[in-house]
Amino acid sequence: MSNNKNLTTSWGAPVGDNQNSMTAGSRGPTLIQDVHLLEKLAHFNRERVPERVVHAKGAGAHGHFEVTNPEIATYTKANFLSEVGKRTPLFVRFSTVAGELGSADTVRDPRGFAVKFYTEEGNYDLVGNNTPVFFIRDAIKFPDFIHTQKRDPKTHLKNPTAVWDFWSLSPESLHQVTILMSDRGIPATLRHMHGFGSHTFKWVNAEGEAVWVKYHFKTEQGIKNLSPEAAAQIAGENPDYHTEDLFNSIENGDFPAWKLYVQIMPLEDANTYRFDPFDVTKVWSQKDYPLIEVGRMVLDRNPENYFAEVEQATFSPGTFVPGIEASPDKMLQGRLFAYHDAHRYRVGTNHQMLPINRARNEVNNYQRDGQMRFDNNGGGSVYYEPNSFGGPTEAPLHKQTAYPVEGFAESVAYDHNDHYTQAGDLYRLMSAEERERLVANIVAAMKPVTREDIKLRQVQHFFKADPEYGTRVAEGLGLPVPQEV
For the chain, which has fewer Cβ within 10 Å, the N-terminal or C-terminal residue? Predict the structure, then answer.
């Protein structure tokens, strides 16, 4: 007889589906009527005071972006990408994901890679990571995932059993787990790693024609990583190593740079591509959609005050400009709400007015009041819309482009559940030495797990990706090798 209790909302009602958010059809977009999703994300954003819930430890720098490809304007009407040589000022914040504000820089963790472009049409935030994929693909699972990365509520210690229990029960995480446990899981510096938008976005040109797009920042410094032994030593000797390296390199005139590339997919390909292009746990093959150069990002100025410029910087993947829009990616759809909501809680409802976040062009709206309103609060001007007094009005030219939706309003999973092909392909791309280090890192990370069934379940995922992969992890943990699936 099962002793399981029903999962409930905070008001005690049973939750029917805690794995899939409600969408209009299998691709969405996500429905705001999913009150369980909204309550779950909103509560999660308010669980830590005052540091960021995730990406608490970070470093930042100012710089600029310069367009190098004249053809980009054929894909998007975004003004800052309109012509070769056009420069746009920007601010970048790099970060670890799980650690607290005082944690070590050199832990094995994805790195946040957030870029704020101060364009002539408003700010544009590209909020990604140093990996092209993520652990989950539906925002409804994000609070649970991050809980496993944080401290156990009883011991106040990190909990490997929780980490691997969640991953083993969420096979979509396998691709990202393989990247995290590889050499690239510990970058040597913030300068020696790539950056990715990770999600699929939509670009729209001046004629209203749209394409799907993915972003890739390629470091000009080259990829360099740390061994676990070197990372552990540095964590003990200089836990702020990455922060210090970025600051000193810029201070000494050694300005780090990245080339920005995109992959472009025609809208209609989304219905026939062999992987769901809106699933953030998957990549698009560069053989199918080659990289197209966009421009170059250079970081050349350090912050004058860390708190004012790095700690108070706020980014959201929903901070768009004309020509760049969202896709039906369910993880992205949840982030469109969660990030702005986190900043309203952590920094305040007027966070966009702070100097580091303020748009360089004039901001005209009817938002008034709120804590820490430090301008003239709109003065005596008209404060509602529509009005008869010449206040700012909407710009129909910049309405978001339409895309078709169909289906029933329900909690529904992605249609495609091949979580093993891309993880296996990545494993087979690695050299023999890289595979050896990958397996050693996984074995070391899984040994503290207290439940044998969790280890066995995760080993089966590795085996499904590649039999050699699963066999070597099983042997390293002293577990029976899974039978062929």
Answer: N
Distance between CA atoms of residues 136 and 257, nearest Å: 30
The second-level CATH assignment, the architecture, of 27-146+187-360 is Beta Barrel (2.40)
Q: Is 273 exposed, middle or buried (0-12, 13-18, 19+ CB in 10 A)?
A: middle
252 among known catalytic residues: no
Specify whether the CB–CB gap between 246 and 189 falls below 8 A.
yes
For residue 347, give Cα distances in angstroms to 217, 313, 320, 351: 28, 9, 20, 6
Q: Given a cut of 50, is residue 101 above it in pLDDT? A: yes
Domain boundaries, the chain: 27-146+187-360
The answer on pLDDT for 3 being more than 70 is no
307 phi, psi to nearest 5 deg: -65, -45
Q: Element (H or E) spanning 465, and its range?
A: helix 452-465
| Buried b / exposed e along 1-31 (16+ C-beta atoms within 10 A) | eeeeeeeeeeeeeeeebeebbbbbbbbbbbb
Contact assessment for residue 414 and residue 34, using Cβ atoms and an 8 Å cutoff: no
Q: Check residue 485 and give its pLDDT.
A: 54
d(CA 177, CA 172) in angstroms, rounded, equals 9
Of the residues 20, 129, 302, 357, only one is catalytic, namely: 129
Active site (annotated) includes residue 351: no
Question: Residue 484 has what pLDDT?
Answer: 64
Paired sense of beta strands 324-326 and 201-204, if any: antiparallel
Evaluate whether 341 touches 41 at the Cβ level (below 8 Å): yes
